[in-house]
Design brief:
By secondary structure, this protein is an alpha/beta fold. The protein is about 45% helix and about 10% strand. The strands form two sheets. The chain has a five-stranded parallel beta sheet, with helices on both faces. The chain is globular and about 55 Å long. It starts with about 25 loop residues before the first strand and ends with a helix. This is Response regulator. InterPro entries: Bact_response_regulator, CheY-like_superfamily, Sig_transdc_resp-reg_receiver.
């Protein structure tokens, strides 16, 4: 938990078109594509953003400063985001807004039981939904005083970030079929493919995850997923 709390010297005031100005968001997410979407949402909302791609990296951030909002992906490479949410929620200096994010809406109860204030379902791309999720959970003293513009914008992250995610997980899978690696890869690909609206890849990743969960032979599912991954990396036409 934070031992030294650092805040910027100048905190801009929130406005109708930038209702999150003055807030700092810590995004704990291993997907570059998903993180880029939240970066764009923060930029358009007036909030600062920092990113950690693992639980370990998040702890390093949190020893230095206390963000206004933390968004925690539930499936991280070095453990479950639920554990971090529990710790943050029980802290004596609680972060004002703790949100979980996942491509699996069934995890909402687990997240709220762990202490999260809410769940942002992937894909996170609606500016209005993002702003409302944060503003509705801020303490009254930190909310925008007065009316605000309700935007209709949908953000579209750079497809290069999606390609980078696919290249990363291909490297993780290369030559490794141990159970933790396969489970992580299936969850990661299902989430990032959902964020990118890549339905075919999402379904293939979900099939592999289901085979692993039910103890079925997963060889054909893994081969199909690897083939789809290779196709996208070779073509770069990923979205």
């Amino acid at each position: 938990m934070p031992s030294t709390l650092a805040y910027p010297a100048y905190m801009p005031a929130a406005s109708a078109d930038r209702p999150l100005a003055g807030l700092t968001v810590l995004m704990i997410e291993d997907s570059r594509f998903a993180s880029e979407a939240v970066r764009l949402l923060c930029l358009k909302s007036g909030a600062r953003i920092r990113r950690a791609d693992s639980l370990m990296a998040a702890q390093r951030h949190l020893t230095v400063y206390l963000p206004s909002v933390v968004i925690v992906d539930l499936g991280l490479p070095d453990g479950s985001g639920l554990d971090l949410i529990r710790n943050l929620s029980a802290a004596s200096q609680r972060i004002p807004v703790i949100l979980a994010t996942s491509g699996d809406d069934s995890l909402l109860k687990d997240a709220t039981d762990a202490g999260a204030d809410g769940l942002l379902s992937k894909p996170i791309e609606s500016l209005a939904v993002f702003q409302k999720a944060v503003l509705d959970r801020l303490p009254p003293a930190q909310r925008l005083d007065g009316p605000r513009i309700v935007p209709s914008e949908i953000v579209a992250p750079d497809p290069v970030a999606y390609h980078d995610d696919l290249a990363h997980i291909a490297e993780v899978l290369n030559g490794s079929e141990d159970e933790p690696t396969l489970d992580y890869a299936a969850r990661f690909l299902a989430g990032v493919a959902r964020s990118a609206h890549d339905d075919v890849l999402e379904q293939a990743a979900e099939r592999l995850a289901l085979s692993r969960e039910t103890g079925r032979s997963f060889g054909p599912d893994l081969a199909r997923l690897a083939g789809l991954l290779q196709e996208r990396l070779e073509s770069r036409a990923v979205i």
